[in-house]
Amino acid sequence: NGDRIKMPQNSYAFEGVNAKGQRVVNSHLPWSNGQVYWDAGNTGGSYDRISKQATAPQFKGEWNYWAFTKNTTTGEMKIYLNGEEWHSGTVLNRGFDEIENFKIASNANGFGKYDGSMDNFAVWKRVLTPNE
């Protein structure tokens, strides 16, 4: 539920980095351009990314349920909005480094504060089934 006045802006919903400070997982929900970004995986400092333009009601002034998934075996990355697949990408097989530092509502260093409210945040080690 992004702030009605301040969003969109350059902010982070969450970010996790490895011991070298390189991005392993990240979401901008959204960035200042209104794009929702989902970054996942890390190989030599590079990560896989999908993004899509969002509308104002999807990121500010109302509650929405966002979910981000990555399957390194199939190479699929997906973004779900309110239980429905909203965007996806394929051939995205970069694996995951161990996450050394992880923060919610900012980047891993505490910058790029997310202005809004978040509730019910969870991270899973695998892609959940639709029933889960």
Structure description:
The two termini are 23 Å apart. This protein is mainly beta and 132 residues long. Strands 4-3-2-1-8 form a five-stranded antiparallel beta sheet, with no helix packed on it. The chain has a three-stranded antiparallel beta sheet with strand order 5-6-7, with no helix packed on it. The protein is globular and about 40 Å long. 3% of the residues lie in helices and 37% in strands. β5 (66-71) and β6 (76-81) form a beta hairpin. The chain is built from one helix and eight strands, in the order ββββαββββ.
Give the arrangement of secondary structure elements.
Layout: E1 14-17, E2 23-28, E3 35-43, E4 46-53, H1 56-59, E5 66-71, E6 76-81, E7 84-89, E8 101-104
Antiparallel strand pairs: 1-2, 1-8, 2-3, 3-4, 5-6, 6-7
